[in-house]
Amino acid sequence: MRSDLCSGTLPARKHLPAAWAGTPVLDVVVPVFNEEDDLRPCVRRLHEHLTRTFPYAFRITIADNASTDGTPAVATDLARRIEEVRSVRLERKGRGRALRTVWSASDAPVLAYMDVDLSTDLNALLPLVAPLISGHSDLAIGSRLSRGARVVRGAKREVISRGYNLILRGSLQARFSDAQCGFKAIRRDVAQVLLPLVEDSGWFFDTELLVLAERAGLRIHEVPVDWVDDPDSTVHIVRTAAEDLKGVWRVGRALATGALPLDRLARPFGDDPRDRGLADVPRGLARQLVGFCAVGVLSTVFYLLLYSAFRAVTGAQLANGLALLVSAVANTAANRRLTFRVRGRGGMVRHQAQGLVVLAIGLALTSGSLAALDTASSDPARSTELAVLVAANLAATVLRFLLFRAWVFADRGQARAGDTDPRQTGVTPARTATGYGATAPAPGPPGASSATQAAPPRRGAASAAPPGRAAPWTASEAGPAPRPDTPAVTPARPPLPSRPAPQADDDPRTTR
Predict the structure, then answer these.
(1) CATH code for the part of the protein at 26-260+436-486
(2) How far is residue 205's CA from residue 470's CA, in Å, rounded to a whole number?
(3) CA of 95: how far to CAs of 64, 202, 231, in Å?
(4) Is the pLDDT of residue 72 over 90?
């Protein structure tokens, strides 16, 4: 895996304008596989809900995952009959593959998806996408495990779901509560940067996307949902769980080795007071001090243990030198990764060489303190030696931090300032068969592919298709191509109607 991938930075979040000319604000993807019976009522119910409650223009995209029954015919018919519906046909299965294909080709600024069974109450859809429209958050997920969620499902699925999320918290330090709820949304500008880093094309796609977003410091909004499990679900639990565990291991290994350039996805939050520059205070100094102190404390303990072990078999000076050498290599590596957030192997040898120079300065300081102690007392106690070395190491630690920041890792800030935005250069990261790494040309305007799609013409838009027929267009998993001419402006939708007071039968726990 290459570690020199440059993903650029994300733009500052902005509230989407109320009138998004000619383009839907929301694109809801419904991945399906052999769902000819449930697809039609699902899409009609979703369309009716969005028409009645959603104040922006929207689109519903049916992503057919190589269905072998009548699902493609149903999807094409729905796209022909309903203006806001389109269908996409993929010849290979995989929920992640379907989402990657449609999201990469979509022109909507907010992208979402939901399961075809509509297990999630649709009243949670607007709260899900509202933080993305307003610019508050980067991603949003529905959660069945957060406080306030109301869920109806069997004990087996409940235990598996909670166990899986505990594994994520323990192994990948995930802080989101529900990785596999089929109800998520993401801003398109975030998706364009994150999707090339996501390797999985199946059920682990959601988890990998969320883990990478969280590690990149992006904001994830959670919405507690009302959820009624579908007893006829075709998901193979054991096989899916095994694939998810393999994905956890793969992502954990990539994060541990620094193969992912997530530190380069920093977003310039214009409204975050923590990111405002203060006079005479270098950016990131407080965080670096905390990290360096933590590493320094552990390094000092490690050094004292090594010194005590070496001192039992050799003299004080040699024990001090050996202990300093081993602990300094570990200290430089830890500060490189944790304090100054340098990932990958680029420059590692140079950093270690410079760290050894800093070690020599520390060695001179500590050895000088021991020589001064020997001069003052011909036979000092072991405890006195340790006390003198602790004081000398504290002084050496302060000097080490200053040298690390001003010399060893001084190019870190310059590298950040020199990062190139892929939207300006036309280069974005690409996912390769061997894992994370590589670069590829940035996708052009959303559009065409080897997978056949059917999309009806919008109001006022020119179309070459005969009356009553859907205007065909294509989209590709490998990369989008130019879309047809931009349609006319879609009239603004009426304001949100007031939501009626909840009734007793609104609780999903009483519906089945």
Answers:
(1) 3.90.550.10
(2) 31
(3) 10, 5, 20
(4) yes
